Automatic annotation (TrEMBL):
Top-rank lineage group of the source organism: Bacteria
Cellular compartments annotated: Cell membrane
InterPro entries named among the record's database cross-references: MFS (IPR011701), MFS_dom (IPR020846), MFS_trans_sf (IPR036259), Sugar_transporter_CS (IPR005829)
Protein name stated in the entry: MFS transporter
Pfam family, one: MFS_1
Bilayer disposition of the protein: Multi-pass membrane protein
Length: 437
C-alpha cells in the first residue's frame, strides 16, 4: 500500500466500504430512535410525564447531542494517539449495544418512570458513539485517497447517513405495513432496534479487516503523535473548530427536519397522512440525498470544497419556503417532490465535508479537530432542531415559522464559508493549516 498515494485496488475498496458501511449502521441506529421519538415514544414513554409529551420526546433527541462533544474528545484523543481503526470498532460496538437494549426497554405502563429514564440513558450512549464515529470514518477514507479524489472518497462515509435514513425508514415502513397501528405501537417498533444485531455483525466483520490510515502510520512511526491533541488544537486552531462547527450546524439543522423525525411526525399527526406512505416518501428523498452527496463530493474535486458548500447553502435558502408550502398541501406527490428537491442543497453541503475537514487540520490533531467541529456543529444545529421546529409550529400555527428558523441557520453557514480557506491540493502530512488570509 502506497503511503502517499493511498490504498489501491481491493484494499482501497475495502477502506471505502468500511467507512460507508460503518457510518450507515451507526446512523441507522441513530435514526430509528429519532423517527420513533415522534411516532412511538411520545405516547409509550413520555405521555405520563405531562401534556408536552411530544416536545419531551423530541428533546431526548437533542439531549444525546450534548454528549457528542464528549465522545468526540475521547475518540479524537485516542484516534490521534493510537489510530483511527480502533476507534471505529469501539464506536460501532457502543452504538449497536445501546440500540439493541432500547428494543427491550419496557414502556411506562410496565415499569413507570424508569422507562423514559432508561431510554434517555441509552440515547446518551448513542450520542457518545456518534460523536466519535464520524471523524474516524471520514479520515480513514480521505487519508487513504489519492490527492485528486479526496472529495469523492470522502463522500462515501457521508452517504452512510442517507443510506442509514433509507434503511431506518424502510424497515419501519415494512413493519408498519405488516402490523396494525395497535400492534406497531405495542411491539412492532421494537423489531428495527433488535435487527441492529445483524448489522453490527456485518460492520464488525468489515472494519476489523481494514488497514490503519497510511498518513497516521507515518506520524506514529516518526513518534510525532501528540500526547494531548486538545492543547495544540485549541491553542492554534480554535478558529477552524468554530468555523467548521458553523458550517455543519447550518447543514445539520436543515437535515434534521427528516433525520430527526419532524417532517414525518408533522405529516402523520397534523396532516393525517398514512405513516407507511410518509416513510416511503422520506426513503425516496434519502435516495436523492445520497445522489446529491456523491455529486457534491465529486464536484468538490473539480471546483473546490467551499464553492460546492456555497452552492448548497444557496439552494437550501431558495427552496426553504416552497418546501414547507408543498408539504402543507397534504398531497403525497407534492410531499415527495418537496423532499427530493430539499435533498439537493443538503447533499451539496454534506458531500465535501470529510475532505474539507481533513484538509483543515494537521495530522497530529486531525481526528480531534474534525470530530469536535462535527460534534459542536451537531449541538448548534441538530440537537434541538426538531424540538424548536415543533415549538415554532405549535406556537405560531404555521410551518413557515420553521422555514424562517432554518433560513437563518443556512445564512450563518453561508457567511462562515467565506472565512474558510479551501486547500484541495494540500498534502495531508503534518503541515500547518489555517483560515483564509
Amino acid at each position: 500500500m502506497a503511503r502517499s498515494g493511498g490504498a489501491v485496488g481491493s484494499d482501497h475498496r475495502r477502506v471505502v466500504l468500511a467507512a460507508m458501511i460503518g457510518t450507515t449502521i451507526e446512523w441507522y441506529d441513530f435514526f430509528i430512535y429519532a423517527i420513533c421519538a415522534g411516532q412511538v415514544f411520545a405516547t409509550q414513554y413520555f405521555a405520563a410525564l405531562g401534556k408536552d409529551a411530544l416536545l419531551l420526546s423530541f428533546a431526548t433527541i437533542g439531549i444525546s447531542f450534548f454528549f457528542r462533544p464528549i465522545g468526540a474528545v475521547v475518540a479524537g484523543h485516542l484516534g490521534d494517539r493510537i489510530g483511527r481503526r480502533a476507534m471505529l470498532i469501539l464506536t460501532l460496538l457502543l452504538m449497536g449495544a445501546s440500540t439493541v437494549l432500547m428494543g427491550v426497554v419496557p414502556n411506562t405502563a410496565a415499569i413507570g418512570v424508569a422507562a423514559p429514564i432508561l431510554l434517555v440513558l441509552l440515547r446518551i450512549v448513542q450520542g457518545l458513539s456518534a460523536g466519535g464515529e464520524w471523524g474516524g470514518a471520514a479520515l480513514l477514507a480521505v487519508e487513504h485517497a489519492p490527492p485528486g479524489r479526496r472529495g469523492l472518497y470522502g463522500a462515501f462515509p457521508q452517504i452512510g447517513v442517507p443510506i442509514g435514513l433509507l434503511l431506518a425508514n424502510g424497515v419501519l415502513a415494512l413493519v408498519a405495513a405488516l402490523t396494525t397501528p395497535a400492534q406497531f405501537l405495542d411491539w412492532g417498533w421494537r423489531v428495527p432496534f433488535l435487527l441492529s444485531v445483524v448489522l453490527i455483525a456485518v460492520g464488525m466483520l468489515i472494519r476489523t479487516r481494514v488497514a490503519e490510515s497510511p498518513v497516521f502510520e507515518e506520524v506514529r512511526e516518526a513518534k510525532a503523535a501528540s500526547s494531548l491533541p486538545l492543547v495544540p488544537l485549541f491553542r492554534h486552531h480554535w478558529r477552524l473548530v468554530l468555523l467548521g462547527a458553523l458550517l455543519f450546524a447550518a447543514n445539520n439543522a436543515v437535515g434534521y427536519m427528516t433525520t430527526g423525525g419532524y417532517v414525518q411526525s408533522y405529516a402523520v399527526r397534523s396532516l393525517h397522512l398514512d405513516r407507511s406512505t410518509v416513510l416511503l416518501a422520506v426513503m425516496v428523498s434519502a435516495v436523492a440525498w445520497l445522489a446529491s452527496t456523491l455529486l457534491g463530493g465529486w464536484l468538490a474535486d473539480r471546483i473546490g470544497r467551499i464553492r460546492v458548500y456555497q452552492l448548497g447553502f444557496v439552494a437550501q435558502l431558495l427552496w426553504m419556503f416552497p418546501f414547507f408550502a408543498l408539504i402543507d398541501t397534504g398531497n403525497v406527490a407534492l410531499l415527495v417532490l418537496a423532499l427530493v428537491l430539499f435533498a439537493v442543497g443538503l447533499g451539496f453541503t454534506y458531500g465535501p465535508q470529510a475532505a474539507l475537514y481533513a484538509e483543515m487540520y494537521p495530522t497530529r490533531v486531525r481526528y480531534s479537530g474534525a470530530a469536535i467541529s462535527y460534534a459542536i456543529g451537531a449541538v448548534l444545529g441538530g440537537a434541538f432542531a426538531p424540538t424548536i421546529a415543533e415549538a415554532l409550529q405549535s406556537g405560531t400555527g404555521t410551518v413557515y415559522a420553521v422555514g424562517g428558523y432554518l433560513a437563518v441557520m443556512t445564512v450563518i453557514g453561508l457567511v462562515a464559508s467565506f472565512f474558510v480557506r479551501d486547500r484541495p491540493g494540500r498534502p495531508l502530512g503534518d503541515v500547518p493549516a489555517g483560515t483564509g488570509g
